[in-house]
Amino acid sequence: MRTQVAIIGAGPAGLTLAHLLRQHGIASVVLEHRDRAYVEGRVRAGVLEQGTVDLLNELGVGARMKREGLIHHGFYLQFEGECHRINMHELTGGRAITVYGQQEVVKDLIAARLAQGEPIRFEVRELSLHGLDSDQPKVRFLHAGEPHELLCDYIAGCDGYHGVSRATIPTSLLNIYQKIYPFAWLGILAHAAPSSDELIYAYHERGFALQSMRSPSVSRLYVQCPLDDRIEEWSDDRIWSELHARLDLNDGPPINDGPIFERGITAFRSFVVEPMQFGRLFLAGDAAHTVPPTGAKGMNLAIADVRVLGAALAARYHEGRDDQLRAYSATCLRRIWRAEHFSWYMTSMLHRFPDNDSGFQNQMQLSQLRYSVTSRAAATSLAENYVGLSQV
Ligand code: APR
Ligand code: PHB
């Protein structure tokens, strides 16, 4: 078997890259460890920056997102019993975000690729990468119990934080930066109409909470919880009572309860590896970096990486230039570090930290929140990072 680019992983990064390459007439094969139903059912975040929406539209996979995605021009910061709107649209010269689940993006990308008759191999096992520092790398794997070898020119490691691609690079060649946070989010999906038509980020003495949504009848809600909590420790009653305690205000509508149909605990990690390349292997998305979900940047960063990689590979194949490929890691890292900072900043401002310096940190957080909603300069900084910066 031979292709031009072997893509490891069928998440947002790998699938979007496959579409970008096809647009440029470059052949690729996507190899995914899980089965299709698992990949399509994996619930993740759901905020798309304008640049992400534009790219999905350019790739011709945006029709359902246009119909079902919810365009938001602002979001709320809630603290000290009051809710304050950040008017992103006005502060950023007319920009907005679209709320549309990552798993819906993944479903649309898979359906479009299979409709094109292009390959995605699900349920590959024991995948390994070889010859990365030669000009003929290969990928070995088992599929339906049979061994296969895929020869290629380049490998895109889009296999997420736990994938094999990053692990194949000699650690002595990598700089790893990471920060672990002392809490997690418990997230649910519920058949309940969101009580607000925009997202509410709530700072509360019991811990952070977020009201988001997936449709006018489905709420996506999160509460900060201890790092080592297990999902079994959270009954439906306990979840709703914590959400009400943190999100309901005296003078506003309470959040709406409803049957919970999905629940999970998400750990928090800021992580970056440099460089994002080793020989013919290029890392993209969560394989190279993760952010805590507070800034809603994970999927947007993954898609921003492959936009750069797709263009660099097109320049290589069609113009014989490899300057963009050589600059790939540095180009991506500028945006990544901006998003790392913003995600860390939002996380630090909005959560209760167990080690609380006699309340000093709470005062810092409250002061920063008040500044964010009273200074136009501070609100603009928040808004332009949230909608996504075009220049970084
Ligand atoms: N072989 C093949 N596929 C693999 C392997 C492997 N050894 N290991 C992991 N994978 C697959 C996973 O099953 C997953 O489908 O790689 C894919 C990686 O997808 P994501 O984790 O969604 O990563 P990415 O495409 O970079 O998207 C980043 O996902 O984790 C969220 O918050 C994050 O929104 C961000 C987005
Ligand atoms: C979500 O809708 O899942 C969501 C929204 C905003 C975030 C994180 C997650 O910051």
Labels describing this entry:
binds adenosine-5-diphosphoribose, alpha+beta, 392 residues, FAD/NAD(P)-binding domain, globular, 6-stranded mixed β-sheet, binds P-hydroxybenzoic acid
What does this structure look like?
- The protein is of the alpha+beta class.
- The protein has a domain at 5-72 and 97-178 and 269-346: FAD/NAD(P)-binding domain (3-Layer(bba) Sandwich).
- The chain is built from twelve helices and 20 strands.
- The protein has helices at residues 12-23, 36-41, 50-58, 63-68, 88-91, 102-115, 165-168, 236-247, 298-319, 323-350, 360-374, 376-387; strands at residues 5-8, 28-31, 47-48, 70-72, 75-79, 82-86, 97-99, 120-121, 124-130, 138-143, 146-151, 154-157, 175-191, 200-202, 209-215, 218-225, 260-274, 277-278, 281-283, 289-290.
- The protein has an eight-stranded mixed beta sheet. Strands 8-2-1-12-19-18 form a six-stranded mixed beta sheet.
- β9 and β10 (138-143) form a beta hairpin.
- α1 runs parallel beside α6 (102-115).
- The longest helix has 28 residues, at 323-350.
- The radius of gyration is 21 Å and the shape is globular.
- The model has no long low-confidence stretch (mean pLDDT 97).
